[in-house]
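Section: Multi-chain targets

For targets with more than one molecule, the full set of components is provided together so that the structure can be written out for the assembly as a whole rather than chain by chain. Components appear in the order listed by the source. The example entry contains two components.
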Amino acid sequence: MSYIKVNNDKVTKEIAEKLINICPFNAFDYENSKLSINASCKICKICVKKGPVGVCEFIEDEKILINKEKYKGITVYIEQRNNIAHLVSWELIGKAKELAIKTKENVYAVVIGNDVENIVKEALEFGVDKVFVYEDDAYKEFNVEIYTNVINSFYQKYKVNVILFGGTTQGRSFAPRVAARLKTGLTADCTMLDITEDGDLLQIRPAFGGNIMAKINTPNHRPQLATIRYKMFDEPKKANPKGKVIRESNDNISKKTTIEIIQSFEKPQVSDISDAEIIISVGRAFKKKKDIELLEPLRKILNAEFACTRPLIENGWFDARKQIGLSGRTVKPKLIINFGISGAVQYIEGMKDSELIISINTDKHNKLFDISHYSIHGDLYEILPKLNDLLDQIL
Amino acid sequence: MKIITCIKQVPASTNVQVDPKTGVLIRDGNNVKMNPFDLYALETAFQINSMTSNVNIHSVTMGPLSAKSVLEEALYMGSNTATLISDRRFAGADVLATSYTLSQLIKHINNYDLVICGKQTTDGDTAQVGPEIAEFLNIPHVPYVKEIIEIKDKSILLRSTYDDYDEIVEVYFPCLITVDKGSNVPRLPSYKRKIAFKNAVIETISLNDLNDKNPNNYGLNGSPTQVDEIFPPTSNTDSIEVFGSPKELSESLFKILKESKYL
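Its structure, encoded as tokens over all components, is:
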């Protein structure tokens, strides 16, 4: 078993205090001159790397290593509903192709459904090497139990290296189910992906709920699974199809389920901020909902879409689909103007690739300024009335 | 009917930063609280209690001994019993190892009809643990539940919400659901219950009480993923800083938009 060992013969009160201070998880207890580690430890090894030399040691058992040569192929699960593919699937194919160049692997698409010819055709146009097709009446609507059986059957047959899922509501329910079935790792909402020459997927995402990025890998398990939000990567260009279509038998896949869909309702369409070219985004500095009307002249003249941060969704001021960030939408507009947004890392990851970023805030330490092209230091309640006067003159 | 609710203690502040020089995490304060999503999971259990008879609500958590406080809160809100599972050998658990541990804990409690989890936690932010527990228990799960429509003898009728659509599903017991924020209004802990549960003993168990006692399936050893490195997010160094009076600032903004041809 791997663990952190504390060499108590080297522990003094000062050393104990130092270690307690550097541990981000409050995992040290110091009692009766003895330093011990409690169950809060996440084995981040900061105490080993950054603490006083020789006090904390990482003890690791020898592991039986897997043969990574046996697992080949970067696979994208093509999410579909009513036989229309979710666009995130194509973005993932673009990323999979980039990764595959490094490791000289093939890129695969897995399509599950009924009557999915148009999706298969499109996947080929995006340049995959093989499309594996599972078609059956039972796959018409997404069912997490049945679809997990399908992916399991695919993996047992082909032993692929990587499977990528869109970080949609469906993907985030499905991928963990697959991960537990295959007893492997899964990293949610990756914002960057890379791969080593021997095929280890490097998954980068915000971590510990704060302004930190973590690089995560899956050193000794296959397949490697990750979910990625829509609009995180670019859609690849279509080309002449060169890939093959492989139709799989479904005879040995169990279609048993205890979940029955009684009824399904499409939500009324709201204009999707993911596709907006100009966005005005608002944050917690707005004291009440009505104050957002101060922005109406600017919104009108720019023909912009409104978007917002998570707290405003929680206040009920906006439809949840207007939220930018990892738990909302990822956007890449030509212009985004942020008013009174503090810039949590989850928000920034959802909009940092915008072409022109302008931010207005009173707090000079706010994180959004770090990624903005223009950082305007001021109070929106003072600036907006004056701006509206200027806009009046050109209307 | 027996309901198990999985809850978690999380840091009260998410304002964590990395020291760019030393790479050490700097956490703002040591305060902890119940994961906000779990309040909605608990409230869902209490609502089911008011819709049908003979409901027993058992709250569980995994964490250090100090995580007992979230179980106390759950009892004061309306849970009947609670179990903490704590063991140093769980240290370093990723999503898979955490889900596996919780599934073992749920099997240890046994005879359940429904498991309720919050959609996600505010510290991990993955929303993966609920579905993984369900898979380990070999039971169906329904995510993002926003309404309990009807409790039947052998099944439950739910409304669940996805990006672009809502679904009404019927799912048979035993099953697991995850509950999103805003699906109900969580009650506050009751003072009366606090008095009533003053001397209640919260069951505390460890790895040795579980059916699978192999330590290699838990904690760091049972975790396929590992964190290689943590680092601060990248920043754009060419930022142009604009200072001045409100009038000057509004003129600057106007000028920037004009020069970039948006006005």
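The domain at 3-59 of chain A is CATH 3.30.70.20 (Alpha-Beta Plaits).
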